Amino acid sequence: MDRDISQQVEQRLSELYERHLRVEEGSVAQYYEPGREYYGPELAGEERDSFAISMAALDGETHCVGARGQAFAIQSISKVFVYALALEDHGRDYVLQHVGVEPSGDAFNSIVFDERNKRPHNPMINAGALATCELIRGRDPREKLERIVEVVRQCAANERLGVDSETFVRELQTADRNRATAYLMRSQNMLKGDVEATLALYLQSCSITVTCRDLAVMAATLANGFVNPVTGTCILERARIRDVLSVMYTCGMYDFAGEWAFEVGVPAKSGVSGAILAAIPGKMGLGVFSPGLDRYGNSVRGVRVCEEVACRFGLHVFATQGQDALLGSAPPGR
User: Fold this and answer.
1) 329: closest CA among 308, 299, 315, 307?
2) 207 touches 170 (CB < 8 A)
3) 62 burial level (CB within 10 Å; 0-12, 13-18, 19+)
4) Tens digits of per-residue pLDDT, 77-117?
5) For 138, what's the count of Cα atoms within 13 Å in the CB-facing half-sphere?
6) Which residues are catalytic?
7) Contacts with 331 (C-beta within 8 Å, 6 or more apart), sequence order
């Protein structure tokens, strides 16, 4: 990227960061903390002000503003990469027998299944992620986890990434609902193996820690057809990207997915840690981190940043023409 353009991008990102730094009272419904689950804004400490935005271009250049070095668990964003690996291991037809691709319309942790086909609705909800975790190939749970972590590392171009053991332990302590979901799935033949091992694998994948910069590079790798733009490495078979991005687009933002598709219109996945990963095919990857959540479990700042970026770049998949590049013009009022 030309140096002058690069400086302009940095400036525009800084302006974007400043515009969204202040969040009015009442817009944040809750914060998430493993082992404690959710708590209200009145109890928030440093989390209230944690905020970062990062963008990765397909030429490998990255830009980040805000709390760029802060690490956080990817939580449900892991579902994207577990699903991609399951597709790599078994192919789309086999995976489709075990987990669907329909938006559920329910919360991400709801214990509701596609009763007609006896499978979870999609791989972006907890039940679907349990199913795809069981599909990951490996001689034992350790090897399965190593394969998932390695995919995330390669997509982020960061070999230091790994599972935070403290986060995993705290997740395990509050896993009753996911455990109930998993055992109910096994009773209906949706899971067939060791339920506790599958549950642990799912929670460990959610406990992988990243930074906002990692998030943007992961998004750019998806936007670039599983080719990491920083390293040039092809991580998974390019033919799988269509399925992954399609499910992200329709199911990636919990039960806010329909409004997200309507307003923002790009493939994305959120996590209750406050992270959002947005992949704009053929253009760039965007990562936002801010822990304050709305009633759907999505980052308040993250959603607003993505809405503004999509508007300014004209990135909606059905946009008729591009708008001012480099984040230069103001979006319509929300």
Assistant:
1) 308
2) no
3) buried
4) 999 999 999 999 999 999 999 999 999 777 777 888 888 99
5) 20
6) 76, 79, 202, 254, 272
7) 307, 308, 311, 312
Q: What are the structure tokens assigned to 194, written together? A: 């060791």
Pairing of the two strands 62-66 and 52-57: antiparallel
- Tell me if the domain spanning 3-313 has CATH number 1.10.1060.10: no
Place of tokens 């940095």: 10
User: Treating both helix axes as pointing N-terminal to C-terminal, what angle do 3-21 and 300-313 enclose, rounded to 10 degrees?
Assistant: 140
DSSP 112: -
Tokens 């250049």 found at = 61
Q: What is the pTM of this model?
A: 0.92
Which residues have CB under 8 Å from 286's CB, separation 6+? Answer: 53, 54, 55, 56, 216, 219, 276, 277, 278, 279, 280, 305, 306, 309
What tens digit of pLDDT does each residue of 178-237 get? 999 999 999 999 999 999 999 999 999 999 999 999 999 999 999 999 999 999 999 999
**Structure tokens given for 306:** 């993505």
**Vertex 102: Cα angle to 100 and 106 (nearest 5):** 110
CA–CA separation, 39 and 35 (whole Å): 11
Q: Residue type at 77?
A: I
